[in-house]
C-alpha cells in the first residue's frame, strides 16, 4: 500500500472525516466502522424512509453504502499527493431487504499506479449475502486531482 496521508490525530483524513460523518452518510444514516490499509466497513440500520414503492430497501441505498465502503478503502491506499475518482460502479442484488442491520465491507483487490479495482460485499445481521459490488477507480495526481 502507498504511504498513508495522516491527519492531526494520526488517522487517514478520509477515515477521520468518515468517523465524524460524511454529508451523504448523515443524509442516509450510514456509519463508518473499521477502516484502513485498503479496507473499510460501513454499516446501516435500514428504516422505512429507505424503501422503494414496493416497500423493500431501495437499490440506490445499497449502492451508496457499497460505494462509500469501496471509496474509503481505496482512498486509504493513496499517497499524500494523490486523490481518485470512480470510473465504474457495478452492483448485483441477491435478495430483498425490508428491515435489517447491513454491513458493507469494501476491499481493494488491485491497486495499480493509475487504476485500482475494489470489491464490496453487503450482508445482513445474519451474515446473509444481500449484494456484491465492484468499482474501478482512477488515481489522480497534480492538476488532475485539484479540488477533489
What does this protein look like?
By secondary structure, the protein is an alpha+beta fold. The protein has one domain (13-145): Thiol Ester Dehydrase, Chain A. Helix content is 21%, strand content 39%. It contains three helices and six strands; from the N terminus they run H-H-E-E-H-E-E-E-E. The protein has helices at 13-20, 23-28, 59-75; strands spanning 31-36, 39-45, 82-93, 101-111, 115-123, 129-141. It has a six-stranded antiparallel sheet. Mean pLDDT is 88; it is low at 1-9.
- The number of domains is 1
Number of helices: 3
- In CATH terms, the superfamily is Hotdog Thioesterase
Strand order of the largest sheet: 1-2-4-5-6-3
Identify low-pLDDT runs. Answer: 1-9
Q: What's the total number of strands? A: 6
Topology as H/E string? HHEEHEEEE
**Structural shape:** elongated
Helix coverage percent: 10-25%
Structural class category: alpha+beta
User: Over the alpha carbons, how many angstroms does the gyration radius reach?
Assistant: 15 Å
Cα(first) to Cα(last) distance is: 21 Å
Q: For the residues shown, what is the average pLDDT? A: 88
What proportion of the residues form beta strands (DSSP E)?
Answer: 35-45%
What would the CATH topology be?
A: Thiol Ester Dehydrase, Chain A
Largest sheet: 6 strands, antiparallel
- CATH architecture level-2 label: Roll
Query: Under the CATH scheme, which class?
Result: Alpha Beta
**Could you state the oligomeric state of the chains shown?**
single chain
Amino acid at each position: 500500500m502507498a504511504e498513508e496521508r495522516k491527519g492531526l490525530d494520526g488517522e487517514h483524513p478520509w477515515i477521520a472525516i468518515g468517523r465524524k460523518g460524511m454529508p451523504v452518510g448523515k443524509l442516509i444514516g450510514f456509519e463508518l466502522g473499521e477502516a484502513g490499509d485498503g479496507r473499510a466497513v460501513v454499516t446501516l440500520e435500514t428504516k422505512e424512509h429507505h424503501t422503494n414503492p414496493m416497500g423493500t430497501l431501495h437499490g440506490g441505498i445499497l449502492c451508496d453504502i457499497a460505494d462509500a465502503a469501496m471509496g474509503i478503502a481505496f482512498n486509504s491506499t493513496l499517497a499524500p499527493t494523490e486523490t481518485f475518482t470512480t470510473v465504474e460502479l457495478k452492483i448485483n442484488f441477491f435478495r430483498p431487504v425490508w428491515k435489517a442491520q447491513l454491513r458493507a465491507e469494501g476491499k481493494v483487490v488491485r491497486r495499480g499506479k493509475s487504476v485500482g479495482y475494489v470489491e464490496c460485499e453487503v450482508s445482513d445481521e445474519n451474515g446473509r449475502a444481500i449484494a456484491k459490488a465492484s468499482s474501478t477507480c482512477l488515481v489522480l495526481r497534480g492538476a488532475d486531482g485539484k479540488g477533489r
